[in-house]
Amino acid sequence: MAEPPVLRTVFMGSPALAVPSLRALAEAPDFDLHGVVTVGDARRSRRGAEVPTPVGEAALELDIPLIRWERGQRREVEAQITAMRPDLIVVIAFARILRPSLLQVPRLGCVNLHASILPWGRGASPIQHALLEGLDETGWTVMLMDEGLDTGPLLVTRTLSIEEDWNAGDLGLAMSEMGPGVLISALRNWRDGVIEPRVQPEEGVTFTRKIPREAGVLDWSLPALDLHRLVRALNPEPGAWCRRRSARLGILRTRPAEGSGEAGTVLEAPKGALRIACGKGALDLLELKPEGKGRMPAADYLRGRPFSPGEGLDRG
Predict the structure, then answer these.
(1) Are 110 and 9 in contact (CB under 8 A)?
(2) Looking at residue 212, what DSSP letter applies?
(3) Which one-letter DSSP state was computed for residue 314?
(4) Residue intervals in the chain for CATH 3.10.25.10
(5) 305: exposed, middle or buried (C-beta count within 10 Å: 0-12, 13-18, 19+)?
(6) What are residue 110's phi and psi, to 5 degrees?
(7) Cα dist. 83→99, 216, 257, 303 in Å?
(8) Which of 171, 266, 304, 315 is such that its CA lies 20 to 30 A from the CA of 58?
(9) Where does the pLDDT of residue 1 fall: very low under 50, low under 70, confident under 90, or very high at 90 and above?
(10) What is the model's pLDDT at position 96?
């Protein structure tokens, strides 16, 4: 049997979610990574120096040529990629819209590994929104990219069950571990003509936007279940929080509970929990991060910072 053709490949991505798939492509003998494209350096080290994205760091470690796509450099970057003559461009959470001029360059197209079961969850933050909406499962979609926002034909979908106690960090880790197997299998089957693209269904389309930092301010007038989902979705970034006596208090882990009272006030709770009345029901705060301190169980927080009768928590 003839050896499968080696595909000249360019990888485009930015966050840690995409790194395991980049490493898998680098190790696969039938993919020849000619370059990695990431967004410009935006993170800063403790000394103030700019550092690459997680994908950029991995590319440098793997000694793969790295292109940083700074704003306003579309033409230059497209020219560099075109010069590589790729058979395939693989895209994961890249945060840039690809124009037709680039989509048409690789003979096998631009293939996107997207972190939802499309057409649900198009856009920037499908992992967080899966938790915000209380989904029991999510997964990966492999699709051919077109000019729209996550609207291209589907190649493969794979589902993943969401554990009840997972936050966005936990779900992102599970997704990143699952991603390489889904991606490599789909790319090989696409190359070998085993799968045919399918048009996305028109029903069930949803869009997810990037969650702003201010979304983490807890509004105690909302139902407890909504706040619980928000805490899960925003942990670890950008984080959920409120204020106590003007000091910021990070909320890391919660559970919905029974109870009623004025929204934001402390209710009687089992030992080790801080129970807060919400617009509907109550919320047990199980793990907290006081301003200027590390994360700690609510029981430890309460030992050093007991509440007075009738005291409550404020919005930010």
Answers:
(1) no
(2) P
(3) B
(4) 213-304
(5) middle
(6) -100, 120
(7) 17, 44, 59, 64
(8) 171
(9) low
(10) 86
Distance CA 196, CA 115 (A): 20
Residues of the chain with CATH 3.40.50.170: 7-208
CB neighbour burial string for 138-154, b if at least 16 within 10 angstroms, e if fewer:
bbbbbbbbbeeebebeb
Q: Is 164:135 a contact under the CB 8 Å cutoff? A: no
Predicted confidence (pLDDT) at residue 75 exceeds the cutoff of 70 = yes
Are the beta carbons of 89 and 15 closer than 8 angstroms? Answer: no
Residue 86 DSSP code: -
**Encoded tokens for 82:** 């075109």
Q: Look at the chain and count its residues.
A: 316
For 13, other C-beta atoms within 10 Å of its C-beta total 27
- Kindly indicate whether the domain formed by 213-304 is annotated with CATH number 3.10.25.10: yes
Structure tokens at 195: 């799968």
Contact 142, 155 (CB under 8 A): yes
> What token pair was written down for 144?
């051919």
Q: Which amino acid is at 88?
A: L
Going by C-alpha positions, the residue among 223, 200, 18 that lies closest to residue 117 is 200
Q: What percentage of the chain carries pLDDT values higher than 70? A: 96
Rounded average pLDDT over 101-105: 96
- Model confidence band, residue 11 (pLDDT cutoffs 50, 70, 90): very high
Distance from chain centroid for Cα 128:
6
pLDDT in tens, 206-250: 999 999 989 999 999 999 999 999 999 999 999 999 999 999 999
